Structures
1.
Amino acid sequence: MAIINRTPDSFWGGNRHTELDSALEALREAVEAGADIVDVGGVRAGQEGEVVDADEELRRVMPFLEAARGEFPDLALSLDTWRSEVAQEAGAIGLDLVNDTWAGHDPELVRVAAEIGAGVVVSHTGGLPPRTDPVAVRYADEQGDDALAVVRDVLRVLAAGAAAAVEAGVPAERVLVDPTLDFGKTTRHSLTLLRHTGDVADLGFPVLQALSRKDFVGESLGLEPDDRLEGTLAATAVAAWLGATVFRAHDVRATRRVVDMVATIRGDRSPVLSVRGEPNGDAPTG
């Protein structure tokens, strides 16, 4: 899942496409690099940056979605929004996915997704409203305040959100679950959740991991966003091995190669070539 941000203030400067021509060129590069899904957003996730109302969000994303659908009619298009009115209008161009990054803050959004025939990403933000950065976040439940409380909370919220999406009319196979690292979480929470990707996969829905250049990578390695690619790819490989199947990424080509290599090691994908040491160098690759 390639990221196209139609924003002037996204946390990473390498993905700010305020001009439509720039966004469309990024789209073409992402498709050429191996993107299966393109996710466009018109509002920065964090609290820094300008206030963006629904009208401005639509002004940013609609021209891109219309042009993308015209140029790539078979490409899966995703809209990163928490607003049902934005998804409703964007649905006219044939959205494939609504990426609800803020965990059902607008309860109508899942109903709109079903109405327009789109899948939905169910996320977990620890109860925080949109554009809220975490401060002094703790997780505790009936089993106590421990390292795994965040895992239990994520599994509970994602299971409930997925069930609500299916009840609203979204086909189960079009419901993705995202543990949503960094959102409502400390770096320790995010690292714990990454190690428990397999538990998220056991919920029975495709798992989306949005890891790209995030703060948990930066804090783990002491690096700013420009230098977080290698850490992101390491996290991607771990998540892929543990069962995640969709990766929201700024760096599409590198991510595609990592995911394909992990799939090949697992035996889920055949090598492109398999001739080394084989008789006549033409052994079957299956």
2.
Amino acid sequence: MADSAGAHLRYDAVSVGRRVLAAEAQALVEMATGLGGAFARAVAVVAGLRGRVICTGVGKSGHVARKIAATLASTGQPALFVHATEASHGDLGMIGADDAVLALSKTGETRELADVTAYAKRFGIPLIALTAQADSALGRAADIVLLIPDAPEAADALNAPTTSTTLQMALGDALAVALLEQRGFTPQEFGVLHPGGKLGQALRTVRDLMHGGAELPLVAPEASMGETLLVMTEKRFGAAGVVDEAGRLLGVITDGDLRRHLAGLLEHTAEEVMTREPQTVAPSLLAAEALKLMNERRITVLFAVEGSRPVGILHVHDLLRAGLA
């Protein structure tokens, strides 16, 4: 019992963790250095697809394949995970003529992939192999081989998939990012696919949060300040936009303008009290950028305009409710 306790005390978990991370980092650097034409061809094939990327594998490679499919789909590239074993029992029908298959196997000799690879070859479906063995059954059958280094696993004595799955996942990330940058995938498009969560909220636009239509507090230049105050009170934004007959925004009246004209306020018209050339934003602006602008200008409300015409109004409270502040 004492010997066991002593061994436990001598065990250094931090050193083990550092050794694992260093081994995997070294393998990643090796893979990055060797990345070349095959990767570029894979990107070109996937970018030209009319269908989806069918990611497949079994065991730990299957888990990674599922993650790669999710990453591709979330960045604008249609993708689907098909378990190689289930493919042999009917799920081959999920693979279409316009698709490409991305098959993952470290050894390239995974028996369960045989039916998927044969199906791809039979119907002329592009087959991309992600493996450590180019001369394996999978590598020989593939149209493109994305080769990962045949580096030792972090738990070398057990040969448990560790370094190899890290390499597979990283190469899948590289493929996804290369595709999204080639397509010019925008934060706005990403936000459409990620409406939930903190990231999705940060990618929402002014149009997503602004108030429009009948909610807009608008008055004519000749409107009395009595009328203007009624509009500001009714709409509850603490501001009013002054528009001409063509609907163009001439100026904005805020609480600050009211204080500056407090003496004899009701004797003035909206045009006499308004601030000309106010700060405005486009509806397509990211809401996070609108919040930054509000903080910099120390304002609490912004009109969104298109062609000089107000189409919406955004209050800092809208951004707070959206979780952006």
3.
Amino acid sequence: MPALPVAFEVGTFIVLGLILLFDLLLVVKRPHEPSMKEAGLWVAFYVGLALVFAALMFVFTGPEYGGQFVAGWITEYSLSIDNLFVFIIIMARFSVPRKYQQEVLMVGIIIALVLRGIFIALGAAVIENFSWIFFIFGAFLLYTAYKQATDGGEDEADAGDNKLIAKLRSVLPMSDSYDGNKIRTVVDGKKVFTPMLIVFVTIGLTDLLFAVDSIPAIFGLTQSAFIVFTANIFALMGLRQLYFLLGGLMTRLIYLKHALSVILAFIGIKLILHAMHVNELPFINGGEHIEWAPEIPTFVSLAVIVATIVVAVIASLIRSRVTGTATDETTNEATHGASDAPAVDDGLAEAADEAEVQGPRR
């Protein structure tokens, strides 16, 4: 990628950092459930910000790398929307008060940024020194695509339960109810943890699993660590507002996971073709590059990604309207299951003691 002005790179991270800091302070100082209008304005702001940055990338780096950013951002944004299904279930299963769900989501976003930053740094270093890693990335994405396409939804049902959570509940003094947004509280004169700690741990674990999937996917579209990191930041920004905006609509996007499986499979194939093109493994073609392996252009990747998502969304909405898939009961359970009642469902604690570790949708 052409060398970007240092001021542009530094300025990008300073501006994004300040926006995230402002967003975090806003949540901490004024915890509330945003209205549809408020959530919609914030989502529009973050999407607009990403498009402005994409335009700057086109100006400074040209259409190739500008296109890589757009493709990477759309892919990561789509995966993030899919991940919201899991967040909705976590909130409902742990009865997180609606007033404090924004803070939980914001903490989850920060954890995701840190984890993805680590994965990006490691991935960039490995790619620079070991081109054969593209074979592994490609095979992993193909496997992930298969799991995504054949997933029957059992993982979502157990997204909030795992052995680590059960262990935490058994070794740490834990209250049965929330105390606002506090992690620790006082019960009968003793300091104990609140269920908010369990919620944060669960969000962190799912963030870790999401990063394992999403980072190889975007490295299949670009090898620029700057593009990978900025695309991930823009994909995660505004995610908490999107949670409230799309809470009801998400139950209607029944074909989204199938679209994501197609996208992941496409990127996996692209990675394997790229690995063949830059091959250095002695047991494959004598260590020589496989010249007939085509390189898929960025504009083709972008077209496939956008077309797949558009078709999936339209098909989902049509199917939902015809069959009435998203019933009021389903929507209420998904988006309002985490009521303002402070107590945690007793059945959840019992389920957490018995459940196995489960991954996210992918």
